[in-house]
Amino acid sequence: MSNLDRQATLSVCGGRGFVPGEPVHELLSPRHVRLGESTRVRRLLPNLGRRMVGGWAFIDHYGPDDIADEPGMQVPPHPHMGLQTVSWLHEGEVLHRDSLGSLRTIRPRELGLMTSGRAISHSEESPRPHARYLHGAQLWVALPEAHRNVDPHFEHHPNLPVVTATGLTATVVLGELDGALSPGTAYTPIVGADLTLARGATASLPLHPDFEYAVLSMSGEARVDGVPVLPGSMLYLGCGRTELPLRAESDAGLMLLGGEPFEEEIVMWWNFIGRTGEEIAQAREAWMTGDRFGSVHGYDGVRLRAPELPPVPLKPRGRVR
């Protein structure tokens, strides 16, 4: 999924300097962003309070939207570099096309994982016809220096490992949870898990004390470590935890996101992750001139133009501001 913000700003993320070494509670509110023709998303990362959680660098939550009489998601071809996109649905379908020739319909609780590596382009759209409701999350994972120029590739994993307890089902989207390992390729120590809680259920998830964590609320009402987290918000939890208590006040859907704090400082602008402003500018120029990122065939529409780079120089700000 693309960042369609026409006023995209340069920011520097990563580094361990602003990662709390102890458990915390930081409730993050979203910024509302229009995506394509008819989809509005709640952007949780980057956030005014925090820019990364482990390798997770970008989180959009959207829906549930009634798109029965709407085109639904329509995101034209756009480029990516230096990251992985994670497509995750609770309702609806998304048709993925990319410059490698991949064509895949992603359905609820199937993992669509695109590794951009040095360069890729793709589009995303609701198929025709499509289901009435669309509800999901789109997330990016920053690639570390050793792997950020890997060959681009796309993975589709319809069957993912599940961890269960009374009233809890945890689907392991990426990384590892309680001994269950996702088949999705991960390049940093990381975890992403979809949590389904039945009304009144209480559970405790095992955590790695060296990871930092956050929990995104997708639906329902739940308490995370005693803190109420409502849909469209995210609770940042810091490091130093070995378990995470959960309680559902109603049937609820959450996403657990975490990983080792990302040591490298990265520059994120529009749909690119690099290490310097100059590198970002070169990627923008390559996209605008039709170089490097390939072509997406089959999408009914024109590709996205990149926004203008800001006139101000890049200023390192760390993981929080």
TrEMBL record:
<dbReference type="InterPro" id="IPR012093">
    <property type="entry name" value="Pirin"/>
</dbReference>
<feature type="domain" description="Pirin C-terminal">
    <location>
        <begin position="193"/>
        <end position="292"/>
    </location>
</feature>
<feature type="binding site">
    <location>
        <position position="124"/>
    </location>
    <ligand>
        <name>Fe cation</name>
    </ligand>
</feature>
<feature type="binding site">
    <location>
        <position position="80"/>
    </location>
    <ligand>
        <name>Fe cation</name>
    </ligand>
</feature>
<protein>
    <submittedName>
        <fullName>Pirin</fullName>
    </submittedName>
</protein>
<dbReference type="Pfam" id="PF02678">
    <property type="entry name" value="Pirin"/>
</dbReference>
<feature type="binding site">
    <location>
        <position position="122"/>
    </location>
    <ligand>
        <name>Fe cation</name>
    </ligand>
</feature>
<comment type="similarity">
    <text>Belongs to the pirin family.</text>
</comment>
<feature type="domain" description="Pirin N-terminal">
    <location>
        <begin position="40"/>
        <end position="141"/>
    </location>
</feature>
<dbReference type="InterPro" id="IPR011051">
    <property type="entry name" value="RmlC_Cupin_sf"/>
</dbReference>
<dbReference type="InterPro" id="IPR014710">
    <property type="entry name" value="RmlC-like_jellyroll"/>
</dbReference>
<dbReference type="GO" id="GO:0046872">
    <property type="term" value="F:metal ion binding"/>
</dbReference>
<dbReference type="InterPro" id="IPR003829">
    <property type="entry name" value="Pirin_N_dom"/>
</dbReference>
<dbReference type="Pfam" id="PF05726">
    <property type="entry name" value="Pirin_C"/>
</dbReference>
<feature type="binding site">
    <location>
        <position position="78"/>
    </location>
    <ligand>
        <name>Fe cation</name>
    </ligand>
</feature>
<keyword id="KW-0479">Metal-binding</keyword>
<keyword id="KW-0408">Iron</keyword>
<dbReference type="InterPro" id="IPR008778">
    <property type="entry name" value="Pirin_C_dom"/>
</dbReference>
